[in-house]
Each structure stands twice: as structure tokens, then as C-alpha cells.
Amino acid sequence: MTVCDRNIANVAATGTLLSVSGLRVSFPGTDTPAVRDVSLRVGRGEVVALVGESGSGKSVTVKALMRLIEFGGGRVTAGRAWLSDGQGGRIDLFAQSEAAMQQIRGNRIAMIFQEPMTSLNPVLTVGFQLREAVQRHQNVARSEADRICLEALKQVRLSEPERRLRQYPHELSGGMRQRLMIAMALACKPDLLIADEPTTALDVTVQAEILALLKMIQRETGMAILFITHDMGVVAEIADRVQVMLRGEVIEDGLVHAVFAAPRHAYTRALLDAAPKLGNAPPATPRPVTDATPALSVQNLIVRYPLSGGVFGRVRANVHAVEDVSFDVAHGETLALVGESGCGKSSLAKAILRLYEPAEGRILLNGEDILGFDHARMMLARRGIQMIFQDPYASLNPRKCVADIIAEPLEIHRTGGRTEIAARVATLIERVGLPASAAHCFPHEFSGGQRQRVCIARALALNPSVIIADEPVSALDVSIQAQILDLIEEVQEEFNVAILFISHDMAVVEKVADRIAVMYQGELIEIGPRDAMLRMPAHPYTKRLLDAVPIAHPDQRRDRQLTAREISSPIRAVGAESAAFTMTEIAPGHFLRCSRDM
């Protein structure tokens, strides 16, 4: 009997915790309900995954169950939702007053959200916010509440829990903040935890830790989990049963092993096919180098942010964001730059664009060192290097139509008359797979994937020789990710552009990269051909990144060991330097950072 079979047997023995039938949710001003005829069951001690892309109705469903949808203008127009009272009876959630629901939320049903920072008050300490949650739901003195809070932080394996209680949310990493949210949700020992995309905003290594943590706590406490996600790889890692939603309806429901082995609905099969699977890409074919001069060459780059303090505002320390990094990117090549948040990837990208001035080093664009350029020459140089950002909506002007957005760089650099620019814009819109009518639409009228296509068209407008793509698909659903990655490959082939592809997801990187460079705490620790890096990684951190990628099949689940990782601070005293190192070639084109003492 598998683990999943045992869990389902336990559910059958202990009974149903949450039962929903015929749920319908509508919003004012819309003719079509956001959720239609949804039925759902969660057994005690069971992990149920509610799966679907953005807009499928997942979050609306759980907010309706928590009676939070009413605060967003939504209304439950049909259906019943029953919660076991633990004594053989049932509570009708939709018949409860707001006062009664406040007692159920947190006590019986707790919820953690996708972005922990937006769920925490930045001006209150961690301890104050935890204690407030405990005392709101339990009639205990402050000393007892503090003890409960400390135990909750220990339960989620947060390092130095006593010190964390005195810190503020901004002093914690993303993974620590998500552990804090889990601790806050678990402090009152709920029967059901609703986890709404709790790992989507996290690095793949932190995601693996959070999934391992949830599984461990679920085993220890017997708590049930309703896990909302769009990632079938995450479903394979954690779920006992899975329900797939599409356009507000449940289209498939079953044991996770059965759904993965033989999905009945075409949409479920599409989700499974779109899930990034490390090791599925064919062997890379080396691209022919058509020009001896790289499109981009970064040499011994150092980026540091000064930290001032004291009465006179003197620089007391520096944040060592990028430390002595060197690499080349050839025309028509994709170099993937990977690493966790805070490792220096985005600081490196900003320095290459001269949005931040490096402390030392050289940046050569088509053989010319742009760090020596004045403002006028840098304006011309920026025609040759463009950027695609992580959040397409935030990087587009909401007051401009698509035609004006794509035309803007052409107008700034005065590349032609009105007729020529209009023709160029029309060509680019067609090239990125958007209809001609998109030219007159505004960003809010598009989906996330369509908005990212607009960003790609804008980046291509000036025929750059280098494009920096900073996490260009991490904010998108997995099926849309695949489309955008295919488009990036197509335009690279057509325009022979060099791409620096920044990501934390090794499964995504495998699809697009020719070579991979790994950054850790501001340093380049390993760089080499894609296949060598994925199949024969040399650095322990590179191996950890690969091990953290979810395996998109429940039969291959791994029992991950949960540890509280401490990451050393990048803040160092003025004058402090990094340890001396060499990049040693361990195989053709495959280099590993080694201490000079080794």
C-alpha cells in the first residue's frame, strides 16, 4: 500500500472534515458566475490539491468558504458548505454570522497566502503579530501566548526563534516570512489549513523546503490541507487527491496517482504536459559562433551598495551584491544566470544596463566598454541592449495602447518617420503572435502571457544585439510559460540576438539555455554547457538547485530532509574583500570556482 493509499484509508476511517456541494459565486456587473456548481470534499488528515490556471476560480472558491469573498464584492448565490464540529455534527458555514466566522477563521480553518510580505504588518514585530493572532482566538495571558508563539516558530523549524520574535518582517528572507505565516496559521491548531499558492513567489529551493515543512507538520498533527496551485509538479509532491478547475468548474477529480497516470480531461493532460520536467530536453546542439567578438562580455564586475550611518552619514559598511563576476555571451546564444533571490542576479543586470554604476570591472557591448561612455554615447549604446521584466503588467504604461508602447523606444531613438515606425510596430505585433487589433488595446485588456508578448515586441523594436530577460516567465501559469519560452527561442533564432536569461528555476532554464552560470551570494560559482551543468554539476549549491525541482509524478516523490538553513549576510565592513579564488576548468568549457588555497 502506498503512502497515498494509506492516507485515503485513514480519511475513510476518520470521516469528512469539509464538504461543499453546488457552490456558485457571482460578482456584480458580470453575467457569468466566477464559480459554477463546484463540489469539494476534504477528509481529516488529507491533502487535497485544487489546481488550475489564473482565473479558473480556485481562490474565489476558498475565499467563499472562508466567507471572505463578501469583502471583495462577491456573493455566494447557491450551494452548501459543511464543516465538521468534531463531535459528530456539522456547521453550515454559509449560515454563520460574521462574529461566528471570526471564531472559525484561525481556530478551525487557517489560511496562508501567496505573498507573505503583503500579509504582514511591516511596522510591527514578528512577536507582536504572532501574539495578536493567538490572543484573538484563545483566552490566554500574554506569557502563555508568548510560549505558544515560540513553540509555533520551533514547529516550523525557523532558526533562532527567540531572536525572530524581536525582528520585523523586512529583516526576514522570503522563505522565513512564509514559515512565519505558516507558524501564525498553526498557532491555534486548526483542523484545516488552506494554502493559496504558498510557494509560487518563492525560489525553487525555498519552495522545496516549504513543501517538506507542510508535509512534516501534516504528519505530526493530522491536520488536513487544501492546497491551491497551478503547478502540477507541486501537486505531485504533496497531494493525496486532486481536483482540476477550468473556467469556474471542476472538470476532473481523483486520487493523485490515478489522475497523473490516466488523466481523463484534455485540459488536465495539457497541464501535465506543460509542467517543467528536468531532464526531458534533448541534448543541446552547440550554436556556431559567427563572430569572434562576444555580443556581451562582463569582466571582473563588482557591485556594492554603501550603507551609511551615524550623525555625519558616513559609509559604515557595504552590501556586496556582485563580487568579481566574469562571463561572455555570444551572438545567438542564451546564457542562463541562475540562483536564489538575493544572490545578485538582478543587481548584475542593472549594472550591465548602467542603471547602477559598478565599483569595478568592465562591460563590453560588441567589443566596446560602455562603462566609459558619457550620457550621449550611453543613450546610443542602449539601442543594442534591451530588457524583458518579470512582471509584464508593472513594466507597461497602463495609459498607453500597445502600438504606442512598442513605438516608444523607436521614437526616443528617432529611428524613422511616423509611417516607418507604424509599419515596424505592426510587424512586431504580428511576429510575437498577437492579432493586428491588439495595437489599439491597453495592457489591462490582455492576459499575463499576452502582456509578456508585448514586452518582447518592445524589446525587439530596436534590433538589439543583447536582451536581458529577468525572470520573464516566473509570474505566468505553466502552460503560458511554455508558449513564451517557445517565442523567445523563435525570435532569438530569427534576430540572432544574445540572451542573458535570469531565472531561479532549473527546469525552465533547461528548455532555453545553451550555457548555464550559477550565482551564490554575489559570486559566480560554476559555469558551463547546459548538459554538463545539469547532468554533472560540480558545486554542492548547483546540486541543491537541481534536487529542489519538483518531480512531476507522484510515484517519484522524494522524502526531503528539512533543515533550517542560515545564509551569511552580504553586508561587510568597509575595506573587507572576498576570499581569493580561481575559476578552474574541470571539463571543456565547464568552470568551477575554487579557493586559491585548494
Question: In terms of topology, how is this protein built?
Answer:
Blueprint: H1 3-14, E1 16-26, E2 35-43, E3 47-51, H2 58-65, E4 75-84, E5 90-92, H3 98-107, E6 109-112, H4 116-119, H5 126-137, H6 142-155, H7 161-166, H8 174-186, E7 192-196, H9 204-221, E8 224-229, H10 232-238, E9 241-246, E10 249-255, H11 256-261, H12 266-274, E11 296-309, E12 314-329, E13 334-338, H13 345-352, E14 360-365, E15 368-369, H14 375-381, E16 385-388, H15 402-412, H16 418-431, H17 448-460, E17 466-470, H18 478-495, E18 498-503, H19 506-512, E19 515-520, E20 523-529, H20 530-535, H21 540-547, E21 571-573, E22 581-587, E23 590-595
Parallel strand pairs: 3-8, 3-9, 6-7, 7-8, 13-18, 13-19, 16-17, 17-18
Antiparallel strand pairs: 1-2, 1-4, 4-5, 9-10, 11-12, 11-14, 12-21, 14-15, 19-20, 20-23, 22-23
InterPro entries: AAA+_ATPase (IPR003593), ABC_transp_ATP-bind (IPR050319), ABC_transporter-like_ATP-bd (IPR003439), ABC_transporter-like_CS (IPR017871), Oligopep_ABC_C (IPR013563), P-loop_NTPase (IPR027417)
Domain ABC transporter: 18-272, 296-546
Protein name: ABC transporter ATP-binding protein
Q: Would you kindly provide a brief summary of this structure?
A:
The chain has 598 residues and is of the alpha/beta class.
Class of secondary structure makeup = alpha/beta
Poorly predicted ranges:
1-13
Strand line-up across the major sheet: 16-17-18-13-19-20-23-22
Architecture of the largest domain in CATH?
3-Layer(aba) Sandwich
The level of helicity is: 25-40%
Broad CATH class of the largest domain: Alpha Beta
Distance from N terminus to C terminus (CA atoms, Å) equals 49 Å
CATH topology of the largest domain: Rossmann fold
How many domains? The number is: 3
Shape: globular
Q: Helical stretch count?
A: 21
Instruction: Name the CATH superfamily assignment of the largest domain.
Output: P-loop containing nucleotide triphosphate hydrolases
Strand content: 25-35%
Report the C-alpha radius of gyration, rounded. 26 Å
Give the total of beta strands: 23
How can the largest sheet be summarized?
Answer: 8 strands, mixed
Q: Provide the residue-averaged pLDDT.
A: 87
Subcellular location: Cell inner membrane
Protein name: ABC transporter ATP-binding protein
InterPro entries: AAA+_ATPase, ABC_transp_ATP-bind, ABC_transporter-like_ATP-bd, ABC_transporter-like_CS, Oligopep_ABC_C, P-loop_NTPase
Keywords: ATP-binding, Nucleotide-binding, Transport
